[in-house]
Amino acid sequence: MSARLSSQLKIGVLLGALCLGLAAIATTELGDAPAATQDRRSPTAAPKSPATNSDTKFTLPPLQRFGIVTERPLFSPDRKPPQHADNTAGAWSSFVLAGIIITPQSREALVLHGKPPVVAHVREGQALEGWTIASIDPDRVVFRDGLNEHELRLTPKAAPPDVATRPRLPIE
Is this model's pTM higher than 0.70 or not? Predict the structure, then answer.
C-alpha cells in the first residue's frame, strides 16, 4: 500500500509542478506581450502602409458611386426600386391635426409636420409641403395635391368627467 501511495504522491507532485510551469509561462507571455512586440519592432522592419498611417484621414467617396444602392435595393425581394416613389404622397401622412380655429373672420388649422414636428398655422388656400388646404371644417381638414385629396380628422380627446360626478371642494 505504501508503494501505491508513493506513486500517487509522485504523480501529484509532478502534475503540480507541470501546472506551476504552465502558469509561469502563461504569465510571462501575457504580461510581456506589449513590451515584446515593441522590442521586436525595428525602424527598418516594415514600412507603414497608407491604411495604417495615422496621418491619413478617411474621406467618403462621391455620392454618385452609391447610385446602385437606390437602383437595386438590398432588402427588396426582386432588387427593384418601389414603384410608388412619389415624394409628396407620403408627406400628408406625416401631418397631424393638432387643432382647428374657426372665427367669423377666418378658418385656421394647427398642423404638426416635419421632423422634428413643427406646428404650422395654415388657412384655406395655403400650401404646406406641396399640399394645398382645400377646406377647414370644425372636425377635419382636407388637403389637395392635383388629383389627390386627403383629409385629416380632429381626434377628440377624452371628455372631461360630468359635473355631477366631480368631487366637490369644501367652501370655507
Answer: no
Taking the C-alpha atoms of residue 172 and residue 35, their distance in angstroms, rounded to an integer, is 84
pLDDT, tens only, 50-70? 555 567 888 878 877 777 777
Grid cell, residue 24, equals 509561469
Give the integer Cα–Cα distance in Å for 122 and 172. Answer: 47
Fold of 87-153: SH3 type barrels. (2.30.30)
Please list the residues that pair with 127 across neighbouring strands: 132
Domain boundaries, given as residue ranges, for the chain = 2-34, 87-153
**Cell for 114?**
416635419
142 close to 130: Cβ distance less than 8 angstroms? no
Q: Which of 105, 111, 102 is nearest to 137 (CA)?
A: 102
97: amino acid identity, one letter = L
Greatest CA separation found in the chain?
A: 114
Beta partners for 112? 96, 119
